[in-house]
Fold this protein.
Amino acid sequence: MTPLPRPADEAERLIDVTDIASFDRATEELLNAFVRVASDLVGVPISGVSLVGEEEQFFKAIKGLQAGSTPRDNAFCTHAIMNPDEVMVVPDLAADPRFQNNDLVTRDPSLRFYAGAPLRGSRGHAVGTLCVMDRVPRELTPTMVERLQDLARGVSAALSLRQAIREVHRAARTDTLTGVCNRKGLEEILAEADPQRLGLLMIDLDGFKPINDTYGHAGGDRALAEVARRLRETVRARDTVARLGGDEFVVLLREVERPEAGLGLANRIHSALADTFILNGSAVPLRASIGFAATPWHASDISTLMERADAALYTAKRAGRGVTRSADAFQGGEAVGRTALQAWLREAFAPGGTVPFHLVFQPIADLRTGKVRSVEALLRWRTDSGLSLRPADVLPVIEGMGYSGALDRWVVGEACRLIALGHPPYTISVNASATSFGVPGFDAQVEAILRAHGIAGDRLIIEMTEGSLAGDPDAALANMHELARIGVRVVLDDFGGGHGTLARLRGYPFDAIKIDRSLVADCARDAQGTALMEAVADMAHALSVPAVAEGVESAEQLALLSRCGVDRAQGFLVSRPVAWERLEEAAEGVPARIRAALAEQRASTSP
């Protein structure tokens, strides 16, 4: 068989053919309707919509003939598409030198008549024909030829419309930044997927915020696109990469033979991300935490599968950077994922919702007298299953959802409610997020809550971090002055944890400085840690404000803090956090505990 010539636009034409060949069943039903109309129009028993591929011709719709494929160089339609603006009519195939020896003519189905009107794809290339055939020779009138061509134009228009609709649908399911599947697309794939032997790798980038902060959103976008590219190159062809939003990705694994296969892919992803990535001339680390779950080992349905993978990811995030965790680690259900947290938070902060938090209180003791004058309110959350979540696990999710302000108002309100009970008579120190403190009007919110509970401002202390000054320092300063006006004291929290500066201390009227627990942990380890603690305490005294140490856990630390001139302390050595009802009892035992710890340390260091 001598190969026939190919159209000049062959490469682009085949792209159109590929698009149409993958159309859904609804499109095939539409084409079948056109085929029936074509048979009735010409009065022949056989008609079809054919596509001419790279090596063969095949039908997308057929009437009156067993559907099948034909080698391209043996197909009538291959000739027809060479003149895409004309209908090719062959009155008698057996009398035409091009086809008289064709197996379709000399053998079953013994075709004698053919007419093919070329079809165009969405890019304008001839992809195949709307063809009519018969087992006897026949002629077509010019009017019949014209009507057949009109009908072919209708088929082409329908194909182009279906392609446009599919492109819109595809765009709606594709992440525009990275080109991978988006959340909606993943949901559609999962809705149609066989839930057996599916695996999910939930992937969350570590340290992505510093990339955005350093290189701007354009740099962050380039990093996300690079991550998506590396994921696509690492997974198998039958797996799906999706970006859920932000720096969250998912890999859907099909035909998982054993859980170890998913963990192996997770390791390869870690390795792929570890390769050097250059952004604006600098090497930028790409790291990720990964959670893995698979059916049927960790879940029996897709909904549970996603929950388990999400919970595994959340466990991985808490374990450190570049870590993978499998749902195997908590088969008893002792974990909760970010998705579940978000659902519970939406319900909790909805109008009329019940916030699932409660407060516990840790005494803050004067190191000279041992007495407790104030307490810090600490947030706790226990799920319905009995799992206790740390604030460090929950607060980033709350911040990301925009609920920080609502949570701050709840904490201040709950503290004021307890103060209003009148007993025990402690001032309560509460933490305010940077979101609340760094915007105008926070002072007015606090004043309104105090007024609602009928208590004076001097019963409340607000702890803020230096991050509160990053957004709008003028607003933060105004809030501090207005809070001072109503008697509320403001304390700088976590000083020395990596963000504190002398400029901040001089420029803002703090009532105390709380020394970060990292400095406290190191203060008794070596001379450098001790000298640093002495410097911080001296600095506080130079500014005429008390120095308060957090995280005190040993008698050695307590004694050294006392020698360095630190004024107050809190931590497990002083007292563990307790419920409001047990606070007075806990506070009564603090002076004796401090005296005993100091005496123990003196005895251990005396010659």
Notes: The longest strand covers residues 372-382. The chain has 22 helices and 22 strands. The chain has a mean pLDDT of 86. The two ends are 107 Å apart (CA to CA).
